[in-house]
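yo

u said u wanted the structure for the complex thing, so here. seqs first:
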Amino acid sequence: MHDDTFEDRLRQVLRSEGDAVPLEVDVERLEARLRVRRATRRSNRTGLLAAGIGVVALGVAAVGLNGGLPSTGPAAEPPATDAVCRPLDLSSPGAAFELPTWTGLIAIDEDATRHSGSLRAFSAADGKEVAIDAYSPPKPSELPFGNGSLTIEAPFGRCVSHLRVEAVPYPTTDPDPTALVVDPIVLVDRELTEPGGSISFEHPANGDWLLVARASLPTTDGRTAWAETVFAFRAHGAVSSPGPLAGTLPRIAPPDGTLAFDESSPNLGFTGAAGNVVTRTLGTLPEAPSYELSIVCLGPGELAYSIVEAASSDPVMSSSVACDAIPDGASVSVEAAGAKQVLITVDESAAWRVIGATQGEVSGVVLPTRLLVSPHVPPDVGIEALVGCGVPFDPTVVVRGPINRCLIPPWPLMDRQPVVSIERTGELSIWLDNGWRLDQIKVSATPFAEVDGLSRPSAITNVYEADATTDVAVVPIDLPPGAFVLRIDLVSHHDDQAFYAAMYVRIEVAG
Amino acid sequence: MIEALRRRRPATLDDLLATYGREIQGVAYLILRDRDAADDVVVETILAAHERGDQLRDASAFRAWILRIATNQALSVRRRGARIIRLEVVPDRASGEDVAGQATARIALLAGVADLPVQMRAAVVLRYYADLPVEEVARALGKSPNTIKAQLQTALDRLRTSLADTGSASDREARHA
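structre next:
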């Protein structure tokens, strides 16, 4: 919904803030930087920035990735790059050297996703690691998605003389930190021709990789320091399906638990124009001990999905499913508190559907776990209906306390759900477990054949609506013979907590 | 401007700085919340435009192009987990409730923008500070227009929420005062 007033207000605030910052850059600074760039290029062309600006050639003190390379002392002659680049400033031997606050080698994939791994740097003076940032090998769950070629960007304005990027296969389970010393595949090993330059290269193959990007940086006293960035990378490409594809997206059953979102592509079938892979944020999963996802995708390549922290966008897990129209799913247990978001990366031409659900108690709210429905009065053994939390169907209802609120799912597929058989003009008893009392209840019905799991059925009949605080609602059913799906909207309470829900049950009305 | 770039006129750097410097600075600062880093972005963006601007065929696309470079520079500057420097301005209650309320709302909006994920923040800055059309924002960030529309909608929803929360808090404070 457009809100021009709010957008105008935002525009005004941003302009007043952005324009209030004084512009302190002057032409002299631009010209000086330009001279540096040109001189660097000349140096490169004449071979002054030879590939040999390595540790051994210049006698530079540095250590390798695992700290295994000894210091070899300062160089006899400073490299020529000192005159034209912005070298690192080593104030005294052994001291932490100055790095710009943003330093890091940034990998950018074709989706323009930036992977800035943890930075590790080593003093040229004594070979000791300099504390720059928390450094630890990334966990498999932190694998970002990648696609196509990668670009490594050198920190701009900084004289990076040499860049080497290596890849090692990354185990998806039980990662072994020593994997870094396994013979790597060298992806890039070359000079950067200018500060601010970048190098693009193809990822090694589809799969999970740990990439190590290492740069040589000249220092003010004529030596070289190393900065390196390690990041995990999941390479995947849009590929044609090897076999004939189904015509349209098949139905999938919702996952167990409380439904949190149910999202699908606008198209129900593969549109046939592959090549543009996009990343989308699908929905939010409320804080819960574990999550269930049901996924189906039809089209080229695969659908990659990840769960990230809603507050920080930090990744929790990621995986992928082939877009082969075969329903798939994931069950994820999490330790970190807070809501999560689900993102997918998929070719725009693909059809897909992703349903997310929470399992276990949602934080801070003791919820009913089941809706029970019985054709007998009083109820004896009922059957469990499909449960999902929702929003009030009556906006005038009094809110009693904390509300567990999430999206009302669309009419879900009920193929595998148990059926309640009921006589024509019979009654259904409906109640919640865990001692929740019903305040309001509304029942609507649609023919079973109308439910496709993707859209709202065209024919919906209002069956019953009532206000009363009771343990059990007795709902008269007046429907023609046949199979139906009932949607039961309800408002209930337990102590001072409220619960709004939309739940579904499959019934068979006898002739 | 493009003609001047093709001829490498000496005054081109000056012209670029005068014409686009402030806007680039604003975009970079709003994304990064760091003046020094924003300065660096201005320098690198103008030098990049100076070096590659002659390759641009459509003169009318120059502004969007240079802002695209600036955004990419700013995004590459941002470090993972970088500290966001928040504006901590306490509204002067003595200056009147309306003024204090406006200042509170302004701070809440800016804080809300600073809290957005960086890509979303960049989209908001390009759309609402630089006034670029959605298609240009999408091109600058390497996303589809639909993705950007969705991001902007999400951002606006979040900002409205943060503003509403601040408003409620202010009301409560006022009632207790």
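Residues 145-176 of chain B form the longest helix (32 residues). The mean pLDDT of chain B is 73.
cya
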